[in-house]
Amino acid sequence: MFAKIILIPATGLNNKTGSWRVKKRPKFLHQNCTGCRQCYLSCPEGCISGSKKEYNVDLDYCKGCGICANICPVNDIIMEQE
Amino acid sequence: MKEFIEGAVAIARSVANCKPAVVSAYPITPQTHIVEELASLVANGKLKAEFVNVESEHSAASCVLGASATGVRVYSSTSSQGLLLMAEVLFNAAGMRLPVVMCCVNRAVSAPINIWNDQQDIVTLRDAGLILLFAETIQEACDLHVQAFKIAEDPNIMLPCIVNIDGYILSHGYEPVEIPPQDLVDKFLPPYNPPYKLDVNNPLTLGPLVGPEWYLETRYAIQETLNNDVKKKIVEVAEEFTKLFGRKSYGLFEEYKTEDAETVFVTMGSIAGLVKEVVDELRQQNQKVGLVRIISYRPFPNEIVKILLKTKRVIVLEKCISLGSKGPLFEDVVSSLYIEASNNGNKLPVVNNYICGLGGRDVYKEELIEVYKDKETIKFIGLKKENLGSFI
Amino acid sequence: MIDEKILLTPGHTGCAGCGQALAARLVIDAAGKNTIVVNNTGCLEVFTTGYPYTSWRVPFIHSLFENAGAVASGVESALNYLGIKDNVNVIAQAGDGGFADIGLQAFSGLWERGHDILTICYDNEAYMNTGIQRSGTTPTGTNTTTTPVGKDSAGNLRWKKNLVDIALAHKCVYVATASIHLPIDLQNKVKKALKMKGPKFIHILAICPLGWSSNPAETIKVTEVAVRTGFWPLVEYENGVLTKVRKIKKDELLPIEEYFKLQKRFAHLLKEENKHVVEMWKEKVKENIEKYNLLED
């Protein structure tokens, strides 16, 4: 007899941590983006994706930490009210 | 064909025939010869295994845990302090349902530091969810090792299994032994085929954090596995072994002259050999005495109560004590007896608890015959009053 | 929609702005899907594998607090036995508690035996998972719950254990430090390490906004300042020889006070009475600058 002690890959995707946000959410302006990918490489959740000069955040998981807005070298991401 | 060899060497060669893939152990007296013989077999190409020289017993158990999780057969060995150091890893292996097979060469526990035999070390871990088997002779130790892999690795069981042998008595003693031959072991023991493992082609997460909503069932599952699947498997495997190897394997326990016994000794390990001599001598004097030798300590074979309830007196003889209470084997026997008797209205026999052999203190036949004539409930055999009093 | 190729997925319960979560994601994406991860108990394991959720898309095992080094040794040995080690990476990782303190013995054994494993320490300079208690890598003057700042105390007494030197003493084939503000550099180091055979070590500074009392949005900025002050030099050693140092340009160099200003755990060091602690930090930074010739001429 066994009990549940082992997990199959990525069941964590069912945990929509976007509900953690209270005040602010990132907004991608898509105006000055140079495609440097800093936002994609700096998100602790890994919920920013895209290609070339168009990147977006998956709000199902974004916790609103604000790193992406803080790090964007051309200020193309801002934090706006929820 | 029998050879006259040292117990530790016999065990190592029997394990080698089981073809473990990863062997990792840390030396501790009196287990060292098992590990040294395995190292020698690897060095001479007789055992194709990864032999990992770790830096402590905690790491030895962790190493075999990791290897077992990767889907290969593993083996380790230890005693006393080493066993206690790896205690949390053994609980961990049981909880993660990994079939780590080991030999514990039973030795007294520090302090004071003492390297001689008693069974306190393994008995302290009886709660961990491990399968605990006790050998009486070196031959049985070899046979139980071969069976241990088959029991532990059963895909419905997947629990650690430890074969226990009395330190020095069985590890360093010499006996005519038949090492289970390679061709028969190959027939008897299927290759390890785990139901889950660390595999990049089928990634799994092992060892998650589990909260109150999930934890209880993991313990229930191990309890049910031990009490049902493991007990059945031990009996089944013993019968298969007996048939294939032509040598009797008893399963959960051995009965010796119990048919009409009015007094029965209950014990485990090599001391049973001495108890059998005592039983024979008392039988010569027309005393109706017998012995039940526990082989599987965990899961505990409460089937023995059917034998014990036919007697007037049960003498539980053990090389361990739960300080502040009673002997652990005594507690197991009495609680099983009570449950059976209170359900069925049987009359209970008198049960006495004799603690002996701690720290390697020799036990003499005359002392056990005295015990037969004795009427104490709990007593230490061979207690020397002159050693008590001042601490210097 | 989260890409199938992401190996450490969102949905984990790490704090917003967690430096270790980001570092771990960068590491596993660099290592690729043919990797087995062995993790000690700590924040990362707790927030990525809380039943019924796991964020890992690679095989992952967590056993105990101090045995990732030994468990990984067993995994690697099993892979050797099966003849497939050349196709599978093994990473043994832990926080500073699980690596430098309680787990150091097992990692020491792994390094000494020469297993082909990449060992990684995510250093957030305290036992964060149990509530911000000091560890062997907590720097002097840090405010933690077991080295609190008070009338008679300016925080932790001793300096950090030098894990890079310890790894070098064990003859690790590759030893490096990395920072999450240079993610490509971090990933290149992981890839380079995994191409080499033998025991490897990467020491990553992992900002903990909760434990450091820093602004979660500034997690990347805090690491960048740590590097630009000379406190966290970015270096690489191959086979015991220092092969690369990331120089700090003259106009990039920052005084250590800039680092303190970003974290309340060092707020007391900006006071006059703790000047002696700041002097000590400046000594340590000077040592780093001289040892590695950090300043660009």
What key attributes describe this structure?
heterotrimer, A: alpha+beta, Alpha-Beta Plaits, two-stranded antiparallel ribbon, elongated, C: 297 residues, Rossmann fold, 8-stranded mixed sheet, globular
Fold topology:
The complex is a heterotrimer of chains A (82), B (392) and C (297).
Chain A: E1 6-7, E2 24-28, H1 38-42, E3 48-51, E4 54-57, H2 67-71, E5 77-81
Antiparallel strand pairs in A: 2-5, 3-4
Chain B: E1 3-6, H1 7-17, E2 22-24, H2 32-43, E3 50-52, H3 57-69, E4 74-78, H4 80-85, H5 87-95, E5 101-106, H6 120-123, E6 131-134, H7 138-152, E7 161-166, E8 174-177, H8 182-188, E9 205-206, H9 212-245, E10 253-256, E11 263-267, H10 271-284, E12 289-294, E13 296-298, H11 305-308, E14 313-318, H12 328-344, E15 350-355, H13 365-373, E16 378-380
Parallel strand pairs in B: 2-3, 2-4, 4-5, 5-7, 6-7, 11-12, 11-14, 14-15, 15-16
Antiparallel strand pairs in B: 1-8, 6-13, 10-12
Helix pairs in contact in B: 1-2, 1-7, 3-5, 7-9, 10-13
Chain C: H1 19-31, E1 35-39, H2 43-48, E2 60-62, H3 68-82, E3 89-95, H4 96-101, H5 104-113, E4 118-123, E5 149-150, E6 153-154, H6 163-169, E7 174-179, H7 183-195, E8 200-205, H8 209-212, H9 219-228, E9 235-238, E10 241-245, H10 256-261, H11 275-292
Parallel strand pairs in C: 1-2, 1-3, 3-4, 4-8, 7-8
Antiparallel strand pairs in C: 5-6, 7-9, 9-10
Helix pairs in contact in C: 1-7, 3-5
Question: Your description of this structure?
Answer:
The complex is a heterotrimer of chains A (82), B (392) and C (297). Chain A is an alpha+beta fold. Chain A has a domain at 32-82: 2-Layer Sandwich (Alpha-Beta Plaits), CATH 3.30.70.20. Chain A contains 2 helices and 5 strands. In chain A, the strands form 2 sheets. Chain A has a two-stranded antiparallel sheet. A two-stranded antiparallel ribbon of chain A has the order 3-4. Chain A is elongated. The mean pLDDT of chain A is 94. In chain B, helix 13 links the parallel strand 15 (350-355) and strand 16. Chain B folds into 2 domains: 3-245, Thiamin diphosphate (ThDP)-binding fold, Pyr/PP domains (Rossmann fold, 3-Layer(aba) Sandwich), CATH 3.40.50; 254-387, 3-Layer(aba) Sandwich (Rossmann fold). Chain C is 36% helix and 15% strand. Chain C has an 8-stranded mixed sheet, sandwiched between helices. Chain C has a two-stranded antiparallel sheet with strand order 5-6. In chain C, helix 2 links the parallel strand 1 and strand 2. Chain C is globular and about 60 Å long. In chain C, 57% of the residues are buried. Chains in contact: A-B, A-C, B-C.
